Amino acid sequence: MAATVTVVATVFGSLVLIAPAAQAAGKPWGTIYTRTSAGNAAAAHGDFANNGNVYATVGANWTDLRSGDGKAYVKVEFFFYKNQKWESAGSSESAHTSTSASGPLSRRLRVDASAARAAIKVCIESIFVDPCSPEAILSFNY
User: Fold this and answer.
1) Which CATH number characterizes residue 133's domain?
2) For 30, 53, 90, 124, which has the most beta carbons within 10 A of its beta carbon?
3) Terminal Cα distance for the chain, rounded
4) 48 domain residue, yes or no
């Protein structure tokens, strides 16, 4: 699918190129929770979208539900479908917060692939292994 570019003529006759048109809203995910022995410790939700046929983007909103026991963050593992299998493209991690935050995590789309996938989880910092939620897994073809 080719990106759409809009051309606008101004009053003075010059042309201005506008950025690629946004794709349809992304696929929603969440709300997912990190649970510890004391209950829910962090929550997250958001969407996964083809961002202008350039990036696979996870839009995330995350909250630390119990400040004082570690900061909450979102971790995303990206995959691309090529040669009839999913190949990892690495992971990204959001900022860590003891309140709430939001932001995107992205990977450039690969020209040699036909689909993108994200495995998304919300985690809480810990002295040992960080407890995390089950993964929300979403994908799209491009």
Assistant:
1) 2.60.40
2) 124
3) 7
4) yes
Percent of the chain with pLDDT over 70: 82
Q: And the tokens for 69? A: 């026991």
Q: Which two tokens stand for residue 54?
A: 């350039």
Structure tokens that stand for 14 in this block = 């010059």
Q: What distances in angstroms separate CA 59 from CA 25, 37, 51, 76, one per listed residue? A: 11, 28, 10, 11
Residues contacting residue 66 through CB under 8 Å, at least 6 positions apart: 38, 39, 40, 41
Give the count of domains, the chain: 1
For residue 99, say if its preceding peptide bond is cis, omega within 30 degrees of 0: no
Tell me: pLDDT of 69 over 90.
no
- Alpha helices (runs of H) in 2-134, residue ranges in sequence order: none
For range 105-130, the mean pLDDT = 96
Residue 61, token pair as written in the block: 């909103």
Domain holding 114, by residue range, is 22-141
With respect to residue 7, please indicate whether it lies within any of the assigned structural domains: no
pLDDT value, residue 25: 65
